[in-house]
């Protein structure tokens, strides 16, 4: 009976939650950084690699991303908008950054690891995981390889970024993530909840990519600029978002075989090192030109997932508007441009 329960959808999610909760408690007891993110991520990753019957939380995890969208939107104030012209020069470097990634990344996967052309191209592009898997599959790429490559990219960057920030940039991971819910006006909590739901579902209806984050961000930013919202979501909500994001990263590796570990995941790990060098170079240029402070510049060009980098920007106290503006630019350019460039390449190859 117990065995059959843990192989049902509810049972697998229960096991995932319990495993993640143990990881969180252990990381907190050992006073390790970001226990609500790294505890679930580490234990769910270990469980996935051990072929435990785990399962992600589906729409609940998607809903948790709306919290981060509201957090970013609430951080967009008139003062931040006034700073947008200052960001223009560093944002202009993002297309150059993406072009270099393509020039280096495609041959990296094609020639060094023997991937077919569509898989190599969409593996190299630092866009959203789901978007790159969908586009790459439609172009004839290997969906399993694409999924593992991008999951590995996010996993390694989220793991290494805190170490780099604390040891090389002197940043602390102790910035308050938000006030307790009991300290916030109840009417603003209601407004933020409505902004999250309306932004998410409204964004889905109009076909907005990344609707769970961008929809609530747009709605809350409008409310913030109008002087209606004055606070970020409560600390408890941000911790829930971290917990579910950590689980989501870990369970991406469910069913990984030894052959995939030694080829696909290994290629993903090696590629992250290439991306790290490129990102560090652009962060140095931005800092040297006085276009941004070192911590914000590093996080702006670190090609992690949008939700994960939002969490790190919050806990380091980095300029959230600066970081998110650069990540949004990168993701928009990749999502819009990747299929166009892939089509041109395919036509030239056929010709």
Salient structural properties:
single chain; about 350 residues; Na+/H+ antiporter like fold
What does this structure look like?
It contains 17 helices and no strands. With 351 residues, it is mainly alpha-helical. It has a single domain, classed as Na+/H+ antiporter like fold. The longest helix has 31 residues, at 258-288. It starts with a helix and ends with a helix. 48% of the residues are buried.
Through-space gap between termini: 60 Å
- Give the topology string: H per helix, E per strand: HHHHHHHHHHHHHHHHH
Kindly state the number of beta strands.
Answer: 0
Structural class category: mainly alpha
| Global Rg | 20 Å
The CATH topology turns out to be Na+/H+ antiporter like fold
Q: Indicate the CATH architecture.
A: Up-down Bundle
| Low-pLDDT sequence parts | none
| Number of spatially distinct domains | 1
Helix fraction bin: over 70%
CATH class: Mainly Alpha
- Figure out the total of helices: 17
Largest sheet: none
Beta-strand level of the residues, as a percent range?
under 5%
What general form does the structure show?
A: globular
pLDDT average, as an integer?
Answer: 89
């Amino acid at each position: 009976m117990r065995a059959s329960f843990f192989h049902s959808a509810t049972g697998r999610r229960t096991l995932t939650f319990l495993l993640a909760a143990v990881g969180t408690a252990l990381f907190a007891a050992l006073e390790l950084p970001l226990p609500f993110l790294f505890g679930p991520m580490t234990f769910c990753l270990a469980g996935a690699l051990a072929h435990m019957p785990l399962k992600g939380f589906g729409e609940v995890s998607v809903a948790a991303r709306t919290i981060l969208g509201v957090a970013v939107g609430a951080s967009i104030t008139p003062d931040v908008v006034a700073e947008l012209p200052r960001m223009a020069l560093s944002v202009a470097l993002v297309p150059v950054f993406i072009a270099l990634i393509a020039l280096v990344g495609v041959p990296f996967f094609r020639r060094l690891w023997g991937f077919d052309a569509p898989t190599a191209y969409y593996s190299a592009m630092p866009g959203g995981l789901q978007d790159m898997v969908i586009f790459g599959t439609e172009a004839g790429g290997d969906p399993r390889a694409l999924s593992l490559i991008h999951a590995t990219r996010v996993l390694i960057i989220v793991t290494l970024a805190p170490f780099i920030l604390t040891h090389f940039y002197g940043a602390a991971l102790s910035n308050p993530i938000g006030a307790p819910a009991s300290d916030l006006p109840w009417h603003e909590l209601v407004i933020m909840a409505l902004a999250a739901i309306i932004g998410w579902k409204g964004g889905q209806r109009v076909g907005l990519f990344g609707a769970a984050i961008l929809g609530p961000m747009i709605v809350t930013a409008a409310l913030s600029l109008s002087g209606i919202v004055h606070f970020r979501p409560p600390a408890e909500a941000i911790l829930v978002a971290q917990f579910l994001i950590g689980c989501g990263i870990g369970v991406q590796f469910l069913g990984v075989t030894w052959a995939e570990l030694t080829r696909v995941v290994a290629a993903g790990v090696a590629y992250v090192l290439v991306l790290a060098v490129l990102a560090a170079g652009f962060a140095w240029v931005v800092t040297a030109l006085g276009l941004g402070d070192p911590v914000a510049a590093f996080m702006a060009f670190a090609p992690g997932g949008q939700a994960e980098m939002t969490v790190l920007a919050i806990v380091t106290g980095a300029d959230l508007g600066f970081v998110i503006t650069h990540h949004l630019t990168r993701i928009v350019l990749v999502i819009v441009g990747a299929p166009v460039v892939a089509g041109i390449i395919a036509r030239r190859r056929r010709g």
